[in-house]
Amino acid sequence: MNIGILSSNCANSNSILPENTERKSRLVKFFEKSIVARRVLLFVSILGMCMLIGDGILTPAISVLSAMDGVKARFDSVSKSLVEALSAVVLVILFLLQKYGTSRPSLFKALSPHYIFLFFSRNGKEGWLLLGGTILSITGSEAMFADLGHFNKSSIQMAFFFTIYPSLVFTYAGQTAYLIKNPNDFKDGFYKFIPNTVYWPIFIIATLAAIVASQSLISATFSVIKQSVVLDYFPRVKVVHTSPNNEGEVYSPEVNYILMILCVAVILIFGDGNIANAFGVVVSLVMLITTILLTLVMIIIWRTSPLLVALYFSVFFTMEGVYVSAVCTKIPEGGWIPFAISLILAFIMFGWYYGRQRKMEYELTHRIDLATLGMLLSEPGVQRVPGLCFFYTNIQDGLTPVLRHYVKNMRSLHKVTIFTTLRYLLVPRVNPQERIIVRKLALEGVYRCLIQYGYADSLNLGGDDFVSQVTQSLQAHVENGLGCLPSEPLQALPEISELEEAKMASVVHIRGKTRFYISKKCSRFDRFMLVFYEVLHGNSRSALPTLGVPPPLCIEVGMLYEA
Questions:
Q1: Are the beta carbons of 485 and 458 closer than 8 angstroms?
Q2: Where found (predicted)?
Q3: Of 384 and 19, the one with more pLDDT
């Protein structure tokens, strides 16, 4: 299961609760009543997403570095530094390409669960410590499911059961046979147990497999960050869809180059030993958090039978919990790296989320209704100026407080003002008939417009085509009598003429650009978090260039929100 999908659902406290309130489980009621429980769930979800992003840094590093060790195993004169340099070169090439779009039969006794119990009964605590060294043997299969956005479930299942799992079994069985006879070669046993006649073909296959595994986690990182941006849990970054059909195939230039720098830095600074320990920690924690979140989804969303939930949770949580306890002993030996990365990312995500929530609270508290807007427009000196204005707002129930600020200071409002809200849908393209939804409000020349778009739609709001589409939709709305009485269709003609006149006079796009005014009554925590949010907001991408609005037609209205 892709932890990005689970975290996105569970991080949003509203989306985790089913809309049908007739039969709510005790767990749903508990989350509804307890803000502490919701915040703990939010923290776990954010930690899971940050761990997966950390996995996206460590997987390319450890995978490519392990594959490149084959050169050193073959040629004794090759130094460790040269292997790391070659690995860095391969990683740089891999990231630069992102913008283009994702022996003996007795050995089989190892498949028997009996030997698991026998191993621990013989080794005790030492066996538990050694368990941390086996976690990397399952990471190849774990990375497959990072590609859920690129392939369907059936294809991944078939690849796992008929290709990946048999390959893992044969590979590890072969290495085990070799290490039984050559126990001192445990550091590079993979390449030493390969026969000389097939050494280089296997080396090429191993390198390609490392690149594929790296690609999976890089793509997963892009997907998770994209989902976080959509949910407003991460600062805005540029997201490019590399496929018109698959929503999960995305690419982010900023994220790509940051990942590239971090991957190369991890290889050159920490080396293979520390990276392996860090990788084991992050993979085991990602799997454990995935199990916890999936259990919540099974209970709250899917309404799965309690017996099946208990069976799933007891088996996987116990197994993964043992692995986590074992690899945590590696924290002083490089296992701290994913925690450091995750804490930095979690702090960024929480800071952005905190600031966005405070802004939304202010806007909902200070929003204005049509009656208030009517009073503002009736004040002496306020005029309705010629032209067509698209006034962008995120609030669908009410009007943004930026509007009050604008009218009070500019002492004017365009004769035709369309309050426009953008809604992103998880579909490639929105049906043209459903893309623009308009309705007339109770004030003269004031309308509301909802623009729905998918990830493959070209959102260009600055062209004449868009303006024509909106005005035509408004004209059809008026002519159908949705904005006036059905018995008075002729009275709609002046309104249509007014729309055409406003369109011919001028077209302007107005969007609020808000910042926090941090007053002295703010607590130290609020002051610190809001200042940090302002730093993130000031360095994140603006939403305006993505709208395709030409700068001469765009007006930003600045306003301070008092915290």
A1: no
A2: Cell membrane
A3: 384
